[in-house]
Each structure stands twice: as C-alpha cells, then as structure tokens.
Amino acid sequence: MQTTTHRTALVLGATGGVGGATARALLDKGWKVKALTRRSMPADGPIQWIKGDAMNAADVLAAAAGAQVIVHAVNPPGYRNWETQVLPMIDNTIAAARAVDARIVIFGSVYNYGLDTFPLLREDSPQHPPTRKGEIRVELERRLEAAARDGVRSLNLRCGDFYGPNAGSSWFAQGLVKPGKPLRVMHYPGPRDLGHAWAYLPDVGATTAALLDREDRLDTFSRFHFDGHYITGNALHAAVRRASGKPALPLRTFPWIVVTLASPFSTTMREVRKMRYLWRAPLQLDGKRLHAFLGVVPSTPIDAALHTTLSSLGVLDTSA
C-alpha cells in the first residue's frame, strides 16, 4: 500500500456531495487537497480553494499543477446543460491530467445502462442507455478509455443513488423527503418490493481514498462497482422509520403525475421523468471485484447512515 505523504489531489466539484465526501476522505488520509470553484470560499481551512471554472481548460490546467490525482466530480446542476458542458469538462480534465501525469477519478452512473442489463450490473455489462443523458455518460467514459491508450490513468467508481450529508439534488434528498421540513411522510418512486442500489457518500469517499492508496495496483483504465446498500423500498422505509424515531411514518407513492405535468415547462422535470425506468426493475451493482481488490470495503450500517442523512437535511424534529 502506498503512502499518501506529500500527495496532492485536485477536486472538481468539492462543494457537491460526492466531491466533498471524497475531499474529506483524502484529507483524513493525509492528502493535500486543492479545489477549483467559481464561488468565493474562505481562505482558511484544510482545503486550498482556487477560483476558476471547470469549463475553462486553462483554469483546470493551472489548478492541477503538482497534483497526482484529479477528482472529476462536477456536473451541470439540475440536469441542465448536459449537452454543452459534460463532455467539454471531461476533455479539460483529460488534458490537464495528461499534462501533469495525474490519475483521473470519476464516479460512474447507472444512467449508462438500459433494462437489458438489469437487475445486476457488472463492470463489463453492455451499455445501451435509453436516454440522451446516458449516451453522454457513455461517451464520457469512452473518452477516458481512449485516453488510457495514450497513458492517461483513470479510476471509475460506479455507484447507485447517492445519499448522505450534502447529497444535493439526489433522489433521496429531493424525491423521498423534503429538505428543511419536518419528516411527515416518505415517498418512493418505484414498486416497494423491488431492490435498488444506494451509495452512502462518506463510504464512497472512503472507498475512493482506499483505492488510491493502492495506486500501484490499479489498471491504467480502472473500473469498480460500489455495491453500497441494496435494499427494497419497504426495507428502506422501515430503516427510515427507525433512523428518524418515527415508527408510524407513512409511505406513499412518488407523484409521477406531477413530474409529467411539469415536464413541458421544466428541463429538470423532463429529465427526471426520463429516469423513471431506473425504478421499474431491480437495480443492483455487483461489487465482487471491488471487495476482492480491497478486502474490506467501507460500509456504514444503514440506520446510522440514514440518521446522519436525515439530520443533515434538517427533517428531524429537534424539540423532543
């Protein structure tokens, strides 16, 4: 196992859920972490914030100086502008990684797959996405694979739906509960007896750090599936009841009709509607390869993970 002493990572998307979780995990392992952001951030603190834009190749290249890893955890918000931003941003990251000899880290999406590969997704499962967003993600990974033939190293950790602190525009934070409001009901987007793959952000960050500790054993184009928590809607509901201390919390069907009616007027709602197929069948990631490689994969018990998530979303009653 390699030491991380004097190693530097540049994180693109450090203000988001998976980028932030990975930055914290790397800091815990002794990495120096730099982060590119368009926001004005405080100068103090463990992360070195650099003002810039992932859409600007010069900004990414300058920020990558001295980095051994570039964590590419940036996406256009709210499903907007994927056509014009996703691929240019990965091209900028590939160019910077090639220039400074850094490994790129991305967090693969289940959008790459169609129902023909469900219920169990493996690293070599065929990718036949039924949506344009999925096609873009497939092309993103194709560009990384092409760059690997030219010596640009990458690590793709594919995850299910994120949840956890600062999960942002995730299904859990936006579809199952309402952030900032007392938890009175949980909604679920699919049949309650079907399993679905979930990825707790701190576990994803810790797993990424553990993989990078084994840099000398990683392939040039390295792919792993993070199995996380595979759980049915009914079992997730029961776990949310326990984690929230609300044994009578009701479970209701996600209001897809509202999404359909809003779709003509909202890009986000149109794209959410296209993702409905992901909830119509069991969806599980095969983590055997990851477990064989790491031996022990970070995994927080789901009740503890959900309690932290619900607390961070501000939905738990604090008056009691």
From TrEMBL:
Matching Pfam families: Epimerase (PF01370)
Superkingdom per UniProt: Bacteria
InterPro entries reported in the protein's UniProt record: Epimerase_deHydtase, Lipid_A_modif_metabolic_enz, NAD(P)-bd_dom_sf
Protein name: Uncharacterized protein
UniProt organism field: Luteibacter rhizovicinus DSM 16549
Lineage: Bacteria, Pseudomonadati, Pseudomonadota, Gammaproteobacteria, Lysobacterales
